[in-house]
Design a protein that fits this description.
Helix content is 36%, strand content 5%. With 310 residues, the chain is mostly helical. It has a domain at 72-204: Penicillin amidase (Acylase) alpha subunit, N-terminal domain (Orthogonal Bundle). It has a 3-stranded antiparallel β-sheet with strand order 3-4-5, with helices on one face. Strand 3 and strand 4 (254-258) form a beta hairpin.
Length: 310
């Protein structure tokens, strides 16, 4: 039990805004209670950075912000990969992959190939560093989070306790060797994707909107979508910011929203998934907030739902 007076809250801060992006809700150095969970730092950091530098914000500005694909995690992690990779030991094709990563603008837009190189290589490094240790037990253990790995490598990269492969008892691996091993593990996958014209991020990563019953024919798959797990547009796999909404509390309320489905729950209806493509494209629909009289005179209303007492 945590007393109400000790609940993490923020009320009218001097900076002029309150934000939340599932980041750590308190300063662990001076907050006395452990709250558990995994709290990525990156999205909250970017949200606060953007809001601090924005002025006279409009609803359009907020639409651009909600669909922003900048990868702060990659901004911090890419230098580690490039620093410890022995580029001279790579083939010409492998060097082209490294160049894609070096030239990448750090945005996980659907067209970006550098995003695919980074994601594949960084995930491979996670497996190379931690897979041997996690395999020592047959109990289910969660993979070390990308953020935890990044924090440890940034703080003390060469002495990170998981660098050595404990299955090779005759030697002690260095971070340079493990970064190379991770790259060699991901390079064939990336080169094969490039051969198939599928290295662009929107084609390389798994994207889809699944039905709640996970019936394939009721879902939408292979979406050429932007976003990543730690961008503000945190779309990854089958999980993401489904309901996007912006409300401007002017005298006449200005509101926008969209979700990746449709107005109908009937799979046979053309309105069943009619919003999906626009949601992927980052578009919004103007939300009509009507009085009873306005609703009765609206010409383009598709239907109504009347709620009454039983």
């Amino acid at each position: 039990y945590i007393d109400t007076s000790m609940q993490p809250v923020m009320h009218n801060p001097e900076r002029g805004f309150v934000s939340s992006a599932n980041q750590l809700p308190y300063n662990y150095k001076n907050y006395p209670y452990y709250m558990g969970g995994i709290h990525a730092l990156e999205r909250g950091y970017i949200v606060n950075e953007m809001l601090t530098n924005m002025h006279n914000i409009t609803a359009l500005d907020m639409q651009m912000m909600q669909t922003d694909n900048y990868d702060l995690h990659a901004r911090w992690a890419r230098p580690i990969l490039l620093k410890y990779l022995a580029v001279n030991d790579l083939s010409a094709d492998e060097k082209r992959l490294v160049q894609l990563l070096s030239d990448w603008n750090l945005r996980c837009d659907a067209s970006e190939e550098g995003a695919s190189v980074f994601a594949s290589w960084w995930d491979s490094l996670n497996i190379v560093l931690h897979g041997d240790d996690l395999a020592q037990t047959n109990k289910p253990i969660q993979q070390v989070s990308r953020t935890t790995m990044l924090q440890n490598l940034m703080n003390d990269s060469t002495n990170y306790m998981f660098i050595d492969d404990i299955t090779t008892t005759s030697k002690v691996e260095t971070l340079q060797e493990q970064v190379m091993a991770a790259f060699k593990k991901s390079a064939p996958v990336l080169l094969e994707a490039a051969k198939k014209q599928a290295l662009a991020w929107g084609k390389f990563k798994v994207n889809g909107v699944r039905h709640i019953l996970k019936i394939p024919s009721f879902g939408r798959f292979n979406l050429n979508a932007s976003g990543t797990w730690n961008a503000i547009n945190a779309y990854k796999g089958y999980h993401g910011p489904s309901w996007r909404m912006i409300v401007h509390l002017t005298d006449e309320t200005e509101a926008y929203g969209i979700y990746p489905a449709g107005q109908s729950g009937n799979p046979g209806s053309k309105y069943y998934d009619s919003f999906v493509n626009d949601w992927v494209a980052g578009k919004y629909y103007k939300l009509k907030i009507l009085t009873k009289q306005e609703a009765s005179n609206l010409k383009d209303l598709k239907g109504t739902i009347t709620i009454s007492k039983a």
